[in-house]
Amino acid sequence: MKRSLLVLMLPATLAAQQNFDTITVKAQALRGGVYMLTGSGGNMGLSVGSDATFLVDDQFAPLTPKIQAAIAAITQQPVRFVINTHWHGDHVGGNENFGRSGALLVAHDNVRKRMSVEQFSKLFNRTTPASPAGALPVVTFTDSLTFHINGDDLVALHVPPAHTDGDVVVHFTKADVIHMGDTFMTAGSYPLVDIESGGNVNGFIAAADAALMVCGPQTMVIPGHGPLTDCTGLREWRNMIASVRDKVAAEMKRGRSLDQIKAANVTAPYDAKWNVGFIKAPTFVEMVYRSLGGK
Known about the structure:
Layout: H1 2-8, H2 12-15, E1 26-29, E2 34-38, E3 44-47, E4 53-56, H3 64-72, E5 79-83, H4 89-92, H5 95-100, E6 104-108, H6 109-116, E7 119-121, E8 126-128, E9 139-141, E10 144-149, E11 152-158, E12 168-172, E13 177-179, H7 201-212, E14 220-222, H8 231-253, H9 258-263, H10 271-274, H11 281-291
Parallel strand pairs: 4-5, 5-6, 6-9, 13-14
Antiparallel strand pairs: 1-2, 2-3, 3-4, 7-8, 10-11, 11-12, 12-13
């Protein structure tokens, strides 16, 4: 998982040069015709049925044939809809391929805006070029959008800026499955708050709260990265972020500098579980600090 998180931060041109030959795309059946697909990059969600094949995110372009083969093993219907949870390359890399195959590309307004122009990440000191026209979402929305297909109501909800300013959570209502995109990860990494993409630590808490409002004892939760979990796992993530945010805010109120806050080890109670992935504690603390107005 660490490798796939690293790859997502590379420009599309470099990600395309990665060796995906050894990657296997696997489908995990959940319920109600909903599946979780894994490969390299962000976890995908899939709804199949008599109406249409609906895909949440599409990883990297070189993996499209493998993704299509995994879907074909489940249903003979081609993908009709692809919705992106945000603009990063490990979630939208297959857009152009799926669009060319006839899928309608859907995303929040800000996803199309960011994909349309060059993006720069100060944290990783890298530039992502604008996406080709064929990869851009064709349908965009501001707040929410509902797909009434396959006997279910699939609700795409734009949440407050968290990982980016275009984050979307997808609720497969009747199947009782929620896809969180990168507003939630179970991969042992602290959150990646993409400040340059409009992300903010407060949005992670808001996104989790929005999902928890419709969570129940049987709800399955698909994270952006990492294994499938449930509402208890999502609540633990939410509370961890809120705790670190509050500790950083308290230190800032005392006039502490960023270096002093990092030295205070405010993430210590959570490091055993979350400091083993891509985003380590000092980087997360800095993201929280920047989110709260620190310079």
